[in-house]
Automatic annotation (TrEMBL):
<dbReference type="GO" id="GO:0046872">
    <property type="term" value="F:metal ion binding"/>
</dbReference>
<dbReference type="InterPro" id="IPR009051">
    <property type="entry name" value="Helical_ferredxn"/>
</dbReference>
<feature type="domain" description="4Fe-4S ferredoxin-type">
    <location>
        <begin position="299"/>
        <end position="327"/>
    </location>
</feature>
<dbReference type="GO" id="GO:0051536">
    <property type="term" value="F:iron-sulfur cluster binding"/>
</dbReference>
<keyword id="KW-0479">Metal-binding</keyword>
<keyword id="KW-0411">Iron-sulfur</keyword>
<dbReference type="InterPro" id="IPR017900">
    <property type="entry name" value="4Fe4S_Fe_S_CS"/>
</dbReference>
<protein>
    <submittedName>
        <fullName>Anaerobic sulfite reductase subunit A</fullName>
    </submittedName>
</protein>
<dbReference type="Pfam" id="PF17179">
    <property type="entry name" value="Fer4_22"/>
</dbReference>
<feature type="domain" description="4Fe-4S ferredoxin-type">
    <location>
        <begin position="217"/>
        <end position="248"/>
    </location>
</feature>
<dbReference type="InterPro" id="IPR017896">
    <property type="entry name" value="4Fe4S_Fe-S-bd"/>
</dbReference>
<keyword id="KW-0408">Iron</keyword>
<dbReference type="InterPro" id="IPR014259">
    <property type="entry name" value="Sulphite_reductase_A"/>
</dbReference>
Length: 339
């Protein structure tokens, strides 16, 4: 079902949806980036069309809404445990096709990667509706077409929106929301469009040709010299899903406290440190190899599509100008040409 809104009508729709949903979208925060003169594009609550940043890529993705940076799992008092309480909040998330596909990867990791579902992820994820932002031009560092993440399969979204100069055209696939859209706008024919070519093309290596010799290749030593293990590539990645778990005891009663999980990343010091102090990926190049293989090899071996969606955020944020897309291409050349 297609609709067309004027800007005012769309704002009325948002006002109406805001009664029931927390609406998250990319926003521009003036001079809030870690480099203080720069704006930070990140996710936050919005109430109007004017607040949504549509001209720049967000530095961070929407994953923290469903997989919070720090999340309490349960509380304990003396010998008893209590699962952390849930909220009644429901969410609408505005995001581009690559980021919609990133949630497909997170769903695999948290819900289908073993016999048990992650109950904390599941209870948030079930309350999310996706509003996909049409993206036909992309940004300089994107390579979503190479990663097959430029489109959204089976129209798997609640709404798909095209932002135009004088309004918004869209498609609605969600019966819960159709009446709200109908009340605010006129019906039109609508067909979603997607980007078909990025400035960057990535050649994925043939998985069958990735052998153990690649692990020892000198390619990775370059990253040992350049990477500073800041972890920015991990925190900005919409598909990185590693976390660490910690207990804290409350001062008032040392037999009470909570267990929480917090984002962790394979590039960060301490990630592979084990009891006794053994660290099996000390070299930064080894961490780059591990991340690369996870994003374009072993996740795909298990789930039939690669983990990386080609959003290019890791390239955008790396202070050492390390490019993941170039790393994949170098690896492919090594595999194909045996260098
Ligand atoms: S590895 Fe880089 S390009 Fe791929 S999904 Fe993560 S941030 Fe995006
Ligand atoms: S952002 Fe760059 S320097 Fe920082 S950990 Fe990632 S690859 Fe290394």
């Amino acid at each position: 079902m297609g609709f067309n809104f004027s800007k005012n009508e769309f704002n009325q729709l948002l006002e109406s949806l805001d009664q029931e949903y927390q609406i998250y979208a990319p926003v521009r925060k003036k001079k809030k980036d870690s480099f203080s003169a720069n704006d930070l594009i990140t996710y936050d609550l919005v109430k109007s069309l004017e607040e949504i940043e549509l001209t720049a890529k967000s530095k961070y993705s929407a994953k923290e809404i469903v997989f919070p940076i720090r999340e309490t799992l349960f509380h304990f008092v003396e010998g008893e445990q209590f699962m952390a309480s849930d909220t009644d909040d429901k969410y609408i998330i505005f995001l581009r096709p690559c980021d919609r596909n990133a949630f497909k990867r997170l769903d695999k990791i948290f819900l289908e990667n073993g016999p048990e579902e992650d109950i904390y992820y599941k209870r948030l994820r079930e309350k999310v509706k996706f509003f996909v932002i049409e993206c036909t031009t992309g940004f300089d560092s994107c390579f979503c077409v190479s990663m097959d993440s430029n489109t959204v399969e089976s129209r798997d979204y609640s709404a798909f929106l095209r932002f135009e100069e004088d309004g918004v055209s869209c498609e609605v696939n969600d019966q819960d929301l159709a009446a709200e859209f109908e009340a605010q706008a006129k019906e039109i024919d609508f067909e979603p469009e997607f980007i078909r070519k990025n400035k960057i093309e990535v050649n994925l290596p043939d998985r069958d040709k990735l052998t153990n010799e690649v692990f020892e290749h000198q390619l990775w030593t370059e990253y040992s010299q350049r990477c500073i293990a800041c972890g920015r590539c991990n925190t900005s990645c919409p598909t990185c899903s590693c976390f660490t778990v910690k207990d804290v005891l409350y001062d008032e009663n040392k037999k009470s406290g909570e267990r929480f999980r917090r984002w962790a990343g394979c590039h960060i010091d301490g990630f592979t440190e084990m009891a006794g102090g053994h660290n099996f990926r000390e070299e930064y190049g080894d961490r780059m190899r591990y991340k690369t293989m996870h994003k374009i090899y072993d996740f795909g071996e298990r789930f039939d599509f690669d983990m990386c969606v080609g959003c290019g955020r890791c390239d955008d944020v790396c202070p050492e100008y390390i490019s993941f897309s170039k790393c994949i291409n170098k690896l492919s050349t090594i595999i194909e040409e045996g260098v």
